[in-house]
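Morning F.,

Quick status update on the modeling queue. The single chain you submitted on Monday has been processed. Sequence for confirmation:
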Amino acid sequence: MRLQVMVTKSVITLFAMALASKGYAQDVTLNIVDQYGQPLTNAVVEIASKSNKTLSQQLPVLIMDQVDKQFSPTLLIAHQGQQVNFPNSDNIRHHVYSFSEAKPFQLKLYSGQPENPITFENQGVVVLGCNIHDSMLGYIYVAKSADVYQSDERGNVQLSGLTLPVQLTLWHALQKNTLEEKQPLTLAVNSPHSLQVTLQTTEPKPRNTFGSKFKGGND
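Structure tokens below.
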């Protein structure tokens, strides 16, 4: 069974027949598309229920590289308290920064390996820019939940062993809602095993990441 729903700012709950409120485990595949039916790669789905697992082991240091004047990967998913290293693999210097509320920081003009990784203590979306190359744009999604997933090139996310009902949030860098907003979705106890979710998006275009604030160098 395949069902398509539109995600809005309000919580959307999938109802069908009224079943018992007792939850049960189910595997669900989400297919996330835009308003034109095109799959959305790099959409983030986070399970936001009270039964979230906690992260009991030390988190590895993640890598956000800089290659050919681009952040690599474009989207990096981290957990609260996780560290991210920002190597510069280009043969020119970069000045990485973010003005995002979740983690404002700067790594001033440097090449190679910065001295220390950056710790991301707060949940939220961190937008990355380069003060020298305004076209560089990257995102770090800092998750509160231990259960967070990223859609593949077909827009698919596989959710295994969900205890329904469950609350999710969805996010994408091109969503029409504000960049910091996570869009809520509730799966009821009788939700289908395959579900298509449509996110309203904007057309991709260069984003002004306030690159002139700390301007001070050339390639």
